[in-house]
Here is the input.
Amino acid sequence: MRNFILVALTTIQIMAQEPLPFSFIPTAPDEITTANTLTRMIQGLGFRYYWATEGLTLKDLKYRPTEEAQSTLETLQHIYGLAMVIKNTTENSANPRPMQEIPNGYKALRKATLSLLSIASEKLILATEEEVSQMKVVFDRQGKISSFPVWNLMNGPLQDAIYHTGQIVSFRRTTGNPIPKGVNVFLGVKN
Here is the structure.
């Protein structure tokens, strides 16, 4: 039992030290395909989200532009849900509505969102054009199934997540905590 606990603690420490995905955007592929294009869009979102959420404070997380608007934390939770839809689409898995569970706490939420985007990106890198054309955005609303072509992923959840990531950037500027200097979204690097 003692050895199991030591192995578990060591594993947790190693996992805690693993860098999160999307601190930079990988080199672009040589060929333009549907799968590569979707992958690059997800990588761009992941990069923007990584830096938009790096170093958020409690003040940032509580910020809401008006009483009726979502707070930064609530916006992060919404982006998590969108990332789940993106990942599930690459697996042709249904998205239960209402959404089941959201990770608790800023760090867990950030890591989970980036992990979902990383999984989606990796699945698309390996996907054939035929596989991408067969992907569907599927919602399961308590047994009522609705299905949409992969095109809806691009103009729906993917663009929505980019939009809301921009809100996070704006919100944190308002609270006096702008994104770190040197983040270059055009090149996909931080200098």
Remarks:
- The first helix runs from residue 2 to 17.
